[in-house]
Recover the amino acids of this structure.
């Protein structure tokens, strides 16, 4: 159990991210980049990511909270660093995937309900086949 915990912790520790300034691979938990000393987490806490814009772009231009007008941060719409940033396109993609997964689940359940009798019959046939094979 202890070994399992240790390997889990090692896997977590090995997760890498890329520093947005120097593009060096860094441990995803580090608070500052060990190469260029850029701050990668907010408030010195590894659990609070600090998102940064590339070059002179503003994060708000691609942020979900700017698009839905729900952000009231004073740095909006010119934020180049933000802890709450959420990419609009990634969010849309995630929502689409959730909707697709949900609709697949609904159609599958519907199909099972419509073909319940056949599925029961198939199950019984398989049980009979299993019994016949085990007794021969
Ligand atoms: S959450 Fe941050 S990046 Fe998003 S709109 Fe507000 S200030 Fe801009
Ligand atoms: Zn760096």
């Amino acid at each position: 159990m202890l070994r399992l915990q240790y390997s889990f912790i090692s896997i977590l520790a090995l997760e890498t991210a890329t520093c947005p300034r120097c593009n060096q691979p860094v441990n995803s938990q580090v608070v500052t980049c060990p190469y260029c000393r850029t701050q990668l987490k907010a408030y010195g806490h590894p659990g609070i990511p600090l998102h940064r814009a590339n070059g002179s772009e503003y994060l708000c231009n691609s942020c979900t909270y700017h698009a839905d007008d729900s952000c009231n941060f004073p740095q909006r719409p010119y934020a180049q660093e933000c802890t709450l940033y959420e990419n609009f396109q990634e969010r849309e993609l995630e929502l689409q995937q959730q909707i697709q997964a949900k609709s697949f689940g609904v159609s599958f359940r519907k199909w099972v309900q419509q073909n319940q009798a056949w599925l029961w019959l198939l199950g019984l046939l398989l049980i009979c086949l299993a019994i016949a094979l085990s007794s021969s």
